[in-house]
Design goal:
This protein is mainly alpha-helical. It is 75% helix and 0% strand. The protein has a single domain, classed as Ferritin, CATH 1.20.1260. It binds fe (ii) ion (2 copies).
Length: 157
Protein backbone atom coordinates (compact mmCIF):
# COMPACT_ATOMS: atom_id res chain seq x y z
CA UNK A 1 0.00 0.00 0.00
CA UNK A 2 1.16 3.49 -0.81
CA UNK A 3 2.42 5.19 2.34
CA UNK A 4 1.15 8.53 3.60
CA UNK A 5 4.33 10.43 2.78
CA UNK A 6 4.38 9.01 -0.74
CA UNK A 7 0.81 10.13 -1.25
CA UNK A 8 1.64 13.65 -0.06
CA UNK A 9 4.66 13.69 -2.33
CA UNK A 10 2.52 12.80 -5.33
CA UNK A 11 -0.03 15.53 -4.55
CA UNK A 12 2.78 17.98 -3.88
CA UNK A 13 4.33 17.21 -7.25
CA UNK A 14 1.01 17.79 -9.00
CA UNK A 15 0.57 21.11 -7.20
CA UNK A 16 4.08 22.16 -8.13
CA UNK A 17 3.48 21.29 -11.74
CA UNK A 18 0.05 22.98 -11.90
CA UNK A 19 1.39 26.17 -10.31
CA UNK A 20 4.08 26.35 -12.94
CA UNK A 21 1.71 25.60 -15.82
CA UNK A 22 -0.89 28.16 -14.73
CA UNK A 23 1.82 30.76 -14.38
CA UNK A 24 3.00 30.02 -17.89
CA UNK A 25 -0.56 30.29 -19.20
CA UNK A 26 -1.03 33.64 -17.38
CA UNK A 27 2.10 34.97 -19.05
CA UNK A 28 0.84 33.89 -22.45
CA UNK A 29 -2.66 35.35 -22.03
CA UNK A 30 -3.33 38.73 -23.55
CA UNK A 31 -6.88 39.01 -22.21
CA UNK A 32 -6.60 40.70 -18.76
CA UNK A 33 -9.50 38.72 -17.24
CA UNK A 34 -8.08 35.40 -18.40
CA UNK A 35 -4.62 36.43 -17.21
CA UNK A 36 -5.98 37.28 -13.76
CA UNK A 37 -7.77 33.95 -13.46
CA UNK A 38 -4.64 32.01 -14.36
CA UNK A 39 -2.58 34.07 -11.92
CA UNK A 40 -5.07 33.29 -9.15
CA UNK A 41 -4.97 29.60 -9.99
CA UNK A 42 -1.19 29.58 -9.89
CA UNK A 43 -1.09 31.34 -6.52
CA UNK A 44 -3.60 28.88 -5.09
CA UNK A 45 -1.52 25.91 -6.22
CA UNK A 46 1.54 27.46 -4.61
CA UNK A 47 -0.38 27.82 -1.36
CA UNK A 48 -1.49 24.21 -1.66
CA UNK A 49 2.13 23.07 -1.67
CA UNK A 50 2.59 24.84 1.67
CA UNK A 51 -0.55 23.25 3.10
CA UNK A 52 0.54 19.76 2.03
CA UNK A 53 3.92 20.35 3.60
CA UNK A 54 2.21 21.44 6.82
CA UNK A 55 0.00 18.33 6.82
CA UNK A 56 3.04 16.10 6.43
CA UNK A 57 4.80 17.97 9.26
CA UNK A 58 1.81 17.44 11.54
CA UNK A 59 1.09 13.83 10.73
CA UNK A 60 4.46 12.36 9.98
CA UNK A 61 7.33 14.76 10.80
CA UNK A 62 9.94 12.01 10.56
CA UNK A 63 9.13 11.71 6.83
CA UNK A 64 9.32 15.41 6.01
CA UNK A 65 12.47 14.88 3.96
CA UNK A 66 10.59 13.10 1.16
CA UNK A 67 9.52 16.43 -0.33
CA UNK A 68 13.12 17.57 -0.61
CA UNK A 69 14.09 15.07 -3.26
CA UNK A 70 11.19 15.82 -5.54
CA UNK A 71 12.42 15.87 -9.10
CA UNK A 72 10.77 17.85 -11.83
CA UNK A 73 10.91 14.84 -14.16
CA UNK A 74 8.80 12.90 -11.66
CA UNK A 75 5.94 15.30 -12.08
CA UNK A 76 6.06 15.95 -15.75
CA UNK A 77 2.40 15.48 -16.43
CA UNK A 78 2.21 17.14 -19.82
CA UNK A 79 -0.63 15.89 -21.99
CA UNK A 80 0.12 13.59 -24.85
CA UNK A 81 1.25 15.71 -27.72
CA UNK A 82 -0.61 14.96 -30.85
CA UNK A 83 -0.69 17.02 -33.98
CA UNK A 84 -2.70 20.17 -33.49
CA UNK A 85 -4.07 22.05 -36.39
CA UNK A 86 -3.75 25.38 -34.60
CA UNK A 87 -2.46 27.18 -31.51
CA UNK A 88 -6.10 27.66 -30.48
CA UNK A 89 -6.69 23.95 -30.60
CA UNK A 90 -3.57 23.26 -28.60
CA UNK A 91 -4.59 25.78 -25.93
CA UNK A 92 -8.02 24.20 -25.72
CA UNK A 93 -6.48 20.76 -25.36
CA UNK A 94 -4.47 22.07 -22.41
CA UNK A 95 -7.63 23.34 -20.77
CA UNK A 96 -9.32 19.97 -21.15
CA UNK A 97 -6.32 18.32 -19.60
CA UNK A 98 -6.31 20.77 -16.66
CA UNK A 99 -10.01 20.19 -16.20
CA UNK A 100 -9.25 16.50 -15.65
CA UNK A 101 -6.37 17.22 -13.28
CA UNK A 102 -8.58 19.51 -11.20
CA UNK A 103 -11.33 16.88 -11.08
CA UNK A 104 -8.79 14.27 -9.91
CA UNK A 105 -7.42 16.61 -7.24
CA UNK A 106 -10.94 17.41 -6.00
CA UNK A 107 -11.69 13.70 -5.62
CA UNK A 108 -8.40 12.87 -3.93
CA UNK A 109 -8.65 15.70 -1.39
CA UNK A 110 -12.28 14.92 -0.66
CA UNK A 111 -11.31 11.34 0.22
CA UNK A 112 -8.46 12.56 2.45
CA UNK A 113 -10.83 15.00 4.16
CA UNK A 114 -13.43 12.32 4.85
CA UNK A 115 -10.86 9.85 6.18
CA UNK A 116 -9.16 12.35 8.48
CA UNK A 117 -9.99 12.21 12.18
CA UNK A 118 -7.94 15.14 13.42
CA UNK A 119 -10.17 18.23 13.20
CA UNK A 120 -7.37 20.64 12.35
CA UNK A 121 -5.96 18.51 9.56
CA UNK A 122 -9.48 17.84 8.31
CA UNK A 123 -9.89 21.60 7.86
CA UNK A 124 -6.71 21.76 5.80
CA UNK A 125 -7.98 18.99 3.50
CA UNK A 126 -11.30 20.80 3.33
CA UNK A 127 -9.53 23.96 2.16
CA UNK A 128 -7.69 22.03 -0.58
CA UNK A 129 -10.88 20.26 -1.61
CA UNK A 130 -12.97 23.42 -1.91
CA UNK A 131 -10.22 25.28 -3.80
CA UNK A 132 -9.88 22.47 -6.35
CA UNK A 133 -13.61 22.32 -6.79
CA UNK A 134 -13.57 26.04 -7.56
CA UNK A 135 -10.62 25.58 -9.92
CA UNK A 136 -12.58 22.98 -11.82
CA UNK A 137 -15.39 25.51 -12.22
CA UNK A 138 -13.01 28.25 -13.35
CA UNK A 139 -11.42 26.06 -16.02
CA UNK A 140 -14.89 25.06 -17.21
CA UNK A 141 -15.76 28.73 -17.49
CA UNK A 142 -12.56 29.52 -19.39
CA UNK A 143 -13.32 26.70 -21.80
CA UNK A 144 -16.81 28.05 -22.38
CA UNK A 145 -15.45 31.53 -23.12
CA UNK A 146 -12.89 29.98 -25.42
CA UNK A 147 -15.55 28.09 -27.34
CA UNK A 148 -17.56 31.29 -27.72
CA UNK A 149 -14.53 33.14 -29.05
CA UNK A 150 -13.04 30.47 -31.26
CA UNK A 151 -15.91 28.10 -31.92
CA UNK A 152 -15.29 28.13 -35.64
CA UNK A 153 -11.65 27.14 -35.25
CA UNK A 154 -12.53 24.43 -32.76
CA UNK A 155 -15.44 22.99 -34.67
CA UNK A 156 -14.76 19.69 -36.27
CA UNK A 157 -13.04 18.41 -33.14
FE1 LIG B 1 -4.13 22.58 -5.87
FE1 LIG C 1 -6.20 23.27 -8.73
Amino acid sequence: MEGFAEKIKKYYGNEYFSAREYKRMAEKSSNPRVKLLYEQLSMDEERHQKILKAILELKSPEEREVLKDLKVEDVDLKPQRSKFRSVIEEAYNYMEWHLRLEADATKAYETMMNDEEDEVIKMLWQKLYSDEKRHHRIIGLLMKTFREMYGSVLSGR
